[in-house]
UniProtKB/TrEMBL annotation:
InterPro entries: Med22. GO terms for molecular function: transcription coregulator activity. The keyword Nucleus applies. It comes from the Eukaryota. Belongs to the Mediator complex subunit 22 family. It comes from Lipomyces tetrasporus. GO terms for cellular component: mediator complex. Keywords: Nucleus, Transcription, Transcription regulation. The lineage of its organism: Eukaryota, Fungi, Dikarya, Ascomycota, Saccharomycotina. Its main location: nucleus. The keyword Nucleus applies. Gene3D superfamilies: Mediator of RNA polymerase II transcription subunit 22. GO terms for biological process: regulation of transcription by RNA polymerase II. This is Surfeit locus protein 5 subunit 22 of mediator complex-domain-containing protein. Coiled coil: none annotated.
Length: 95
């Protein structure tokens, strides 16, 4: 078994990786939507196909944001349950 410090470090790496993956997904999918946005000079079939693609990209963005919300919730739960140390002090304690 690994010690608590190693577990904490591994957990932090996993959380950072999830955040980075979600952020990259959001940026890439948003860029794809922007690339598909112009409609001038396109026929109706192409426009309809691209509208469907935009919906798919938007769904991917929503999933990535939901993953970020799950990470946030997990961190809050860990902090409340005392599994994460707080490096902040109450303002009255600092002089």
């Amino acid at each position: 078994m690994s010690n608590p410090a190693q577990q904490s470090q591994q957990r932090a790496l996993t959380i950072n990786q999830r955040i980075n993956e979600a952020a990259n997904t959001i940026v890439l999918e948003y860029s794809a939507i922007i690339a598909l946005a112009p409609v001038s000079g396109k026929d109706r079939t192409t426009t309809a196909t691209e509208a469907y693609e935009i919906e798919c990209h938007a769904t991917s963005i929503v999933r990535a944001i939901e993953d970020l919300l799950m990470v946030s919730r997990s961190l809050k739960e860990s902090w409340i349950l005392g599994q994460v140390s707080s490096s902040f002090q109450v303002g009255d304690d600092q002089t």
